[in-house]
Design a protein that fits this description.
It is built from 5 helices and 3 strands; from the N terminus they run ββαααααβ. Strands 2-1-3 form a 3-stranded antiparallel beta sheet, with no helix packed on it. The chain has one domain. The mean pLDDT is 81. Strand 1 and strand 2 form a beta hairpin. It is an alpha+beta fold.
Length: 108
């Protein structure tokens, strides 16, 4: 899984996840650290309180922190794409949602 911002990939190395094999530590860590990284608050205050099992079964959130991008991207219009590859067919009626958190005024 990855995010493309004007053809630049974030993260530089794809997430290689397997929820059935319990291989999601990097995604779990990033999801748990979101509030600490975004709000700059101490982990003791923002601790996510989601166990790895609950994350896998109930809250499989993938967080892409693209705040560390080049200055060139910060001052231009950005094309955002979320790309994912799956080893198996995705079940029918599966939904994916994207939430963009930004400190810039968005125009459509």
């Amino acid at each position: 899984m990855r995010v493309m911002l004007n053809a630049k990939q974030y993260p530089a190395v794809n997430y290689d996840l397997s929820f059935p094999k319990m291989q999601f530590a990097r995604a779990y860590y990033d999801a748990c650290k979101f509030s600490e990284n975004f709000y700059g608050m101490n982990d003791l205050i923002t601790h996510c309180n989601i166990t790895p099992t609950d994350y896998s079964d109930l809250y499989p959130l993938i967080v892409f922190d693209v705040s560390k991008q080049s200055e060139r991207l910060k001052s231009t219009v950005i094309d955002v794409q979320i790309k994912a590859s799956f080893t198996e067919a995705v079940p029918a009626h599966t939904n994916a949602f994207a939430v963009v958190v930004s400190d810039r005024m968005l125009q459509f």
